[in-house]
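Service request form, structural biology core

Requester: graduate student, group of Dr. S.
Request type: structure prediction, single chain
Budget code: on file
Notes: please return the result as structure tokens.

Sequence provided:
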Amino acid sequence: MLGAMKKTVDKKGIIKKLLLLQPIDIPVFHEVALRLQQMMNDNSYRIEEAIILVNEDTALASVMLRHANTTYNSGKAPITTIKNAIVRLGSQQIVNLAFTASMANSKSDNPLINTYFKKLWHHSHAVAIASSWLAVELRHDNISLDINPDEVYLAGLFHDIGKLYLLKSIDRLYSYGILHDDDNIIDDILDELNIPLGVKVMQHWNIPEIYIKSVERHAADDWKCGTNDYLVAAVRLACKIHDYVLDGQEVTKDCEALEVLEDELSLLDISDVSNVYHIVKAIAE
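Core staff response, request fulfilled:
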């Protein structure tokens, strides 16, 4: 028994070292998403260049047209061109859609890793939508509040980006025969290395600092620092609520779960998270 445990611990240590030593340039993000983000970072955003980039990816172009014609935009003239879709949605929205599409399409030939990819996508997507919805509600109640729903969406989408990188790296180890389906160490590795490698990946790909800091602070006890606290709180809150939903625990106004959410609720000045819970639950279903 002890020998088997020691063997598992030793193997996990070896796998961790291999993952930490791997080149960080594994393609976690779609090139189009990165190039659109870079254009925004450099303040060189030109709609003509964005149109060319989006048209390079048929799937992304399709997602963008569909989103531009959603119920949210109903009552307006139908959008039939990428140029009009970009004009209607705005630069930050098209960047968000590009990253969303690229993360949603993460797949593996290994059924086990594919299951992890799907689970991670559902979680990240739910957190992104719920936290951005929360940001919209907060802005509605206080227009001067320093929180941008589009930025919160992307922060929610990125909060577990280290896990996406790790799963792609672990997938390689499976293909090399270094890992096997009976190696019960994936969850431990994802939990231990998610934040440090998430930060490292985002720094490598020049993702804006606001999102890097959000990932860095996501699981920290001292996450409040006076800068973008509302953004971090919204993502943390949506993430915790999604975990409760997955565990089958209902989050109501007077439930015990609110004690775990106390810091976020206090900073955001909200006492009832029923609406957030129902949104997350609807997405999860």
